[in-house]
Specification:
The protein is 76% helix and 0% strand. The longest helix is centred in the middle third of the chain and has 41 residues. The protein contains three helices and no strands. It is rod-shaped and about 115 Å long. By secondary structure, the protein is an all-alpha fold. It has one domain.
């Protein structure tokens, strides 16, 4: 019984080691390296996209704070139309 246990343990460990080595060897092939590079570039693009979205959201929030603080979005007050004074000078005499 004891020998059977150790035999099963040896077979299991051997199978795990072979699988691990096969995966490592596959990663070192040109196709494996290209796949890893493509995955890394995809992750980088996702990270840059997330960063850009965070920057845009923060800029939008800050712009809202600044607009609220300066009153740029406040409605214009109702005022009567401005009356411009008559022009004086040579051009006024010609008209």
């Amino acid at each position: 019984m004891r020998r059977l246990f150790w035999l099963a343990m040896g077979i299991t460990i051997g199978a795990l080691v072979v699988r691990k080595l096969s995966r490592a060897a596959e990663k070192l092939t040109p196709q494996g390296i290209v796949a890893q590079l493509a995955e890394g570039l995809r992750d980088l693009a996702d990270a840059i996209g997330d960063f850009g979205a965070d920057v845009r959201a923060a800029a939008s929030a800050r712009e809202e704070e600044l607009r609220a603080g300066t009153g740029l979005d406040a409605p214009l007050p109702d005022r009567p139309a401005a009356v411009l004074p008559a022009r004086r000078g040579a051009h006024a005499a010609e008209s």
